[in-house]
Amino acid sequence: MRANCWIGKENVSVETVPDPKILSQSDAIVKITSTAICGSDLHLYGGFVPTMESGDVLGHEFMGEVVEVGRGVKNLQKGDRVVVPFPIACGSCFLCEKGLFSVCENTNPNAWMAEKMWGHAPAGVYGYSHLLGGYAGGQAQYARVPFADVNPLKIPDGLADEQVLFLSDIFPTGYMGADLCGIQPGDTIAVWGCGPVGQFAMKSAFLLGAERVIGIDRFPYRLRMAREKVGVETINYEETDLLETLKEMTGGRGPDACIDAVGMESHAPGFIGAYDRAKQAMMLETDRPIPLRQAIMACRNGGTVSVIGVYGGFIDKFPAGSMMNRSITIKTGQCHVQRYMKPLLERIQKGEIDPSFVITHRLPLEQAPEGYKMFRDKQDNCEKIVLKPNWSRESGAGEFRKNMMGCCFINPDLLRKS
Amino acid sequence: MATEQRVSPQQLANGLGWFSIGLGLAEVATPRLVANLIGVTDDRKTRKILRFYGVRELAAGVGILSQSNPSSWLWARVAGDALDLSSLVKALSSDDNSRGRTLAATAAVAGITAADLHCAQQLSNGQNGNQSRTAATALTSSITIARSSEEVYGFWRDFTRLPEIFDGLETVQTVGNRRSHWKLALPMGRSLEWDAETTDDQPNSRIAWRSESSSAPHSGEVRFESATGQRGTRITLKIQPEGMAASLGKLFGIVPKQALNIALHNLKQLLEVGEIAKSDASIHRGKHPAQPPEQDFGGAKGMQAAASA
Predict the structure, then answer these.
(1) Which of A1, A101, A300, A305 could form a cystine bridge with A336, CB 3.0-4.6 A?
(2) In this structure, are residues B75 and B122 in contact, taking their beta carbons and an 8 Å threshold?
(3) In this structure, what DSSP letter does residue B164 have?
(4) Are residues B160 and B172 in contact, defined by beta-carbon separation less than 8 angstroms?
């Protein structure tokens, strides 16, 4: 089969690799119809995540058709259409039973590696380094899905791939970011990052009852999407003093909750941005935690900071004093996707949200390397790229041109603030 | 001070550490002088090699002086000595070198090697001096499994199933009531076999054994205790390597602590979900941590094993 492989830092390539096989009787094989490039894939692309090996198949947001099941699989059949959540859960351990699927105790074959780096090991994740299990990813024509009775969500007829694909990661991830805030009526929520996860976090904050939502980014096209598709107020942090502006917008009190939807590769103008870049380059810190610092400083007394942007290692200049003296609660985690998939599918079916609003580009799988570069460099107003494993390179070229002309948003009526 | 106390292994280790640093500095800073001293031709290549060896000496020196138990750094010195000796023996065969001085250098290094080896063994064996510094460290690992102690103990008591959870353990056969025969696969087609005697067997609580062969001297125990809040069983596995096996095993990865950790994770997966999770990195050549073995795979093996249990 063809698959998009990590070759090295800033180098991915679509290669012919062996087809996945059933390795355990609880596995299923899925023929992938749609897959996507995630912002967190850019951390791999940039070489910020350790334990990647040349040839690893990338991708953890995918859906498709079940083409083979192991003898032990009861809930799935050949022909079922499924969305696959990015963390792999066993469904029966102490933590799965608490609904903490992304920290399942039984699905990371390289748990010892993660224990060395993080103390304890989280669940296995598709296409996301050997630290997280070394599972082959879903930017491919086929993928092996372990624990198939527990993980994939069957999709009813009548919903397009693009409406449900993001149930695999970014919609539930954004939703969990808002869920962790414990939103009360009248709350103001500030969201750092207007990438796809940030857009879903903002949308979800409204769905969960926030009165005001403020989106923060530096790319005008992303801020525009947040204003037009989600209906939030926005701040371009390169144009104003962010913390002062947030204070003014909230009557001096600060947002009730702040969501960091950026993570380890954040940017900042001026000295502090250069400081973190330099420290990261000298390996004195692994992550640039600018939005996390800002979110803590900005949050109102007793408020919640919800961290869904991905961090990998260690950070510097953590404002512990601000956090402790002002009763800040920090909540975080890789999304427990399995917990949110069904309720969010229902919201999609009811028309409360059409997650396809974030898509700006559709490319054939063969053009994944171009897609990574475009997404990383924010070329062509790139917000979210969907990859089609069954499109030929040529059909993609036509689609690519169409995208370039901006014919990319679907069904804008569904996207108004509900 | 006047007593005839022998030099303790730690004192010897500290001496060797400072010696490492001195020699390392000389090799790095004045490779020309060192080359002359040991009678080898002073050319660019020699100086480069000497500088490299100097860095190695400095690392070993700092390692020995900064660690509370420097035994692995001393074993690293032993390995470095072997490298030095082989370089010197090679130099002896070249006509360009001053054979007399090289021979003297070789003799000196051989002497140092003996001291290193002695010190490393002493520290590893824990025969002398302060205990924390000298006792071979026991390898321990612990995990909580959401199953009753009867079930977990039952799995372990049947030693023949342990190869399902220990990578590299090929077979365990029970030979009579308290004896078992173990076979471990080593790299490059070699294997290690030993007989063990079960020294303690308290149902649902503790199993202990001791290897009787000199090939792999060790003792082991596994304890089963109830976890808090009826969350299953807390399993603690402890292996105490003995003699030379202790440090050699640690150095060459025969019994790293990590192997115990992986085995306990495997046991947990097998008992909680009936299979051992395996991932599939697709296009790797050669051995790969995430790549399933070509013939068989733990997942299905685990399933069959669980089904037949």
Answers:
(1) A101
(2) no
(3) G
(4) yes
